[in-house]
Design a protein that fits this description.
Elements (H helix, E strand, L loop, with lengths): L1 E2 L26 E2 L30 E6 L5 E5 L21 E4 L2 H22 L18 E5 L8 E6 L3 E5 L3 H10 L10 H10 L3 E7 L3 H5 L3 E9 L2
Antiparallel strand pairs: 1-5, 2-3, 3-4, 5-10, 6-7, 7-8, 9-10
């Protein structure tokens, strides 16, 4: 299970703004017509990229269906999912942060959450704010890497690893899983079982809930591959 933004060589968190890929599935932006036939019964308030600290939400008139892991449906702004989501009915450029693939929905959601929460911490750091230091994992040389606590308004274990030539990040239901994802890009083999439930519970305490938009293709589904954009709804 991987995200499409987790690279071990990252000069800047701004690398997560977009990815050009023609793999978007049937979930396309739909214009909300307040007096017409399209009505958003559950309109979710999506936290925009870089807006985790103050729950700054994304606005937009084009909406796309999203689901919580328990199947609860929402309509969210297409601009949160695609860079061109507000400008066209046939968006083709999904935002890279939180875009994840896996062999199960739960696994892809966990990986997407890890990417999003860690990336938010890197943005916070690059904006000139400090993050608390953590003891480095045994895999890292403390003389060459700094390990930081990336929790921003939530208690999900989130790790940012900064070196001279790379910055990487990860999150998980435990600090061990967060370190593993930060260093290796994926969680340990037994990580997903029960982990998503723990992450949902912890995020709910911070008035956040994860939702996904299906960006898979028929070819990927044929081979059992899930591809989703993981977004965060604000309950505040």
């Amino acid at each position: 299970m991987v995200t499409e933004s987790h690279l071990l060589e990252r000069p800047s968190a701004s690398a997560g703004t977009a990815v050009s890929a023609r793999l978007a599935g049937p979930a396309r932006g739909t214009r909300l017509r307040t007096g017409g036939t399209v009505v958003a019964l559950r309109h979710g308030r999506v936290v925009g990229l870089g807006g985790l600290v103050d729950h700054a939400v994304v606005d937009g008139s084009r909406l796309v269906p999203a689901e919580e892991p328990d199947g609860t449906s929402w309509w969210i702004p297409a601009a949160a999912v695609w860079c061109d989501g507000e400008s066209t009915d046939a968006a083709e450029h999904p935002r890279r942060i939180g875009l994840a693939t896996g062999t199960s929905v739960a696994g892809a959601v966990v990986q997407g959450l890890s990417d999003r929460l860690g990336w938010e911490a890197v943005c916070h750091l690059e904006a000139g704010h400090d993050l608390p230091a953590l003891e480095p994992a045994s895999d890292l040389d403390p003389e060459h890497f700094v390990v930081l606590d990336g929790r921003l308004g939530h208690d999900v274990p989130t790790v940012v690893v900064v070196g001279a030539e790379l910055t990487c990040w990860g999150a998980g239901s435990t600090w061990a899983q967060a370190f593993h994802r930060a260093i290796y890009g994926v969680g340990a083999a037994d990580a997903v079982s029960g982990e998503l439930t723990a992450l949902i519970t912890t995020l709910a305490e911070a008035d956040l809930r994860p939702v996904t938009v299906d960006l898979g293709s028929p070819r990927l589904r044929q081979h059992g591959i899930v591809r989703v954009s993981v977004q965060l709804l604000s309950a505040t």
